[in-house]
Specification:
The chain has helices at residues 36-43, 45-55, 92-102, 118-121, 219-224, 272-281, 287-302, 325-340; strands at residues 2-3, 6-7, 26-28, 61-66, 73-74, 86-90, 110-117, 147-153, 156-161, 166-173, 176-181, 227-231, 236-239, 244-249, 254-261. The chain has 342 residues and is α+β, with helices and mostly antiparallel strands. It has two domains: 2-261, Sandwich (Jelly Rolls); 272-340, no CATH class.
C-alpha cells in the first residue's frame, strides 16, 4: 500500500482549485479545523456530546447495533443469510450517552449511525460548521448541490465499497483510516452480492484486518494498488466517484460529515439500474450474441459521439438525441411500458 497524496497549509474552509480534475484521491489536512464541533471534540467527548445534542431537534436516528464479537465490522452473518448487526431507532441523546458509557469498555458493542442526512439528524449543525464548495464547480457555475450526511459511532469497520457520487469526507471527531482502491481493482476485491448488501452498496468480502489469501488470492494484487491515510479531527479527504474505499473509525467516539455530489445532470438515473437490467437480459446469452451486444454498447454508449446519430434527421433521433429532462422521462416511460409487458 502507498500513502494518499496530501495537501496541507490550506485555508480552513477553502477547497483548493482543480481538486476533482484528476479524479485521484487527496487528503486535505486541516480543511475543517475551524469548525466549532472540532474544537468541542478536542476538548472532550462529553463536550462533543453536549454540542451535538444542541444541534439536534428531536428526530430519531437510525442506528446499526452489533455485539462485541463483530469487533465493529458491519458485515454479513457467518452463513450470509442476513447481517451481523441489527437496526434500531432512538433519540440522539440516548445514543450519545451510550457512546460515553462504553468508552472505557475493552470490548464494547458496536453503535453506528451511517448515511443519515445532516438536515434530518443535526439540523442546527450547518449554521456554524461551514464549508465553501464553490471550488468544486466548473468556472462560471454555481457550487454543486451536495448532500451532507452524518456518520457517528464508536469503533467500526466498513468494508471496501464504491459510491457513484464524488465524496468529500470531513473528520469532525476521533480518527479514521481510509483505504482506497482504484476502480480497475474490482476483479481483485472479491465483491459480494450486488442486490443483498449490508448498507446499500456491494462490498468486498475480504477482511482487511486479516486477509485470507488462500480464499482470496488476487487480493494481494489489490493491496499492491491500495492507497491509505489516517485522518485526525479537522482533516478531510476527497474520494473520487467509483473508487473503492474502506473506512475505519478508530476511537471510542467518532464523527464524520461527508458531502456527496454528482458531476452529471439530475435527470440521469443511477447506472446500477443498467447493470441489473444487463444481468437480466445480457449475461446469459450465447457468447456470439454477448460479443455483438458488447459492440452495440460500445457504439451507442461508451464510444458514442456526434457522428453516432448524425445520419438521422435531428427531429427523429429520439433516444439517441442528447439527454434532456424530458427525454429522460420519455425513456423511463418507454422502459416501464416494456417491462410491464413481460
Amino acid at each position: 500500500m502507498q500513502p494518499i497524496r496530501e495537501l496541507s497549509g490550506l485555508t480552513p474552509g477553502q477547497l483548493p482549485p482543480g481538486l476533482t480534475e484528476a479524479a485521484q484521491p487527496v487528503v486535505l489536512r486541516g480543511l475543517v479545523s475551524h469548525w466549532p464541533v472540532v474544537a468541542r471534540a478536542r476538548q472532550s467527548d462529553a463536550a462533543l456530546a453536549d454540542y451535538l445534542q444542541s444541534c439536534w431537534r428531536g428526530a430519531p436516528v437510525a442506528i446499526m447495533t452489533g455485539p462485541p464479537e463483530i469487533e465493529g465490522r458491519i458485515f454479513y452473518n457467518d452463513d450470509f443469510t442476513g447481517m451481523n448487526f441489527g437496526r434500531a431507532d432512538a433519540p440522539l441523546p440516548a445514543l450519545l450517552q451510550e457512546l460515553l458509557r462504553c468508552r472505557t469498555m475493552e470490548r464494547p458493542p458496536c453503535y453506528y449511525v451511517g448515511s443519515t442526512t445532516l438536515e434530518e439528524c443535526l439540523p442546527g449543525f450547518p449554521a456554524h460548521n461551514t464549508l465553501d464548495l464553490q471550488a468544486l464547480a466548473a468556472p462560471g457555475d454555481a457550487a454543486p448541490q451536495a448532500l451532507a450526511s452524518v456518520w457517528l459511532g464508536n469503533r467500526s469497520r466498513i468494508a471496501p465499497h464504491y459510491d457513484l457520487p464524488d465524496n468529500l469526507a470531513c473528520v469532525a471527531a476521533g480518527r479514521r483510516r481510509f483505504t482506497l482502491f482504484p476502480p480497475e481493482q474490482l476483479p481483485n476485491l472479491y465483491v459480494g452480492p450486488i442486490d443483498f448488501t449490508p448498507a446499500g452498496q456491494p462490498v468486498s468480502l475480504v477482511d482487511l484486518r486479516q486477509p485470507d489469501f488462500e480464499r482470496f488470492p488476487r487480493f494481494a494484487q489489490a493491496l499492491a494498488h491500495a492507497q491509505v491515510a489516517e485522518l485526525e479531527a479537522g482533516d478531510a479527504i476527497y474520494i473520487p466517484s467509483m473508487w473503492w474505499h474502506q473506512v475505519e473509525a478508530l476511537e471510542a467516539f467518532n464523527l464524520l460529515i461527508n458531502y456527496w455530489w454528482r458531476q452529471s445532470p439530475a435527470h440521469m438515473d443511477p447506472p446500477v439500474l443498467t447493470l441489473m437490467m444487463a444481468l437480466l437480459s445480457l449475461r446469459d446469452l450465447p457468447e456470439p450474441q454477448r460479443r455483438a451486444w458488447q459492440g452495440i454498447f460500445d457504439h451507442y454508449v461508451f464510444n458514442a459521439g456526434p457522428e453516432t446519430a448524425a445520419h438521422i434527421p435531428e427531429a427523429a433521433r429520439h433516444a439517441l438525441a442528447p439527454l434532456t429532462p424530458q427525454g429522460a422521462a420519455n425513456l423511463r416511460s418507454h422502459l416501464m411500458h416494456r417491462l410491464q409487458q413481460r
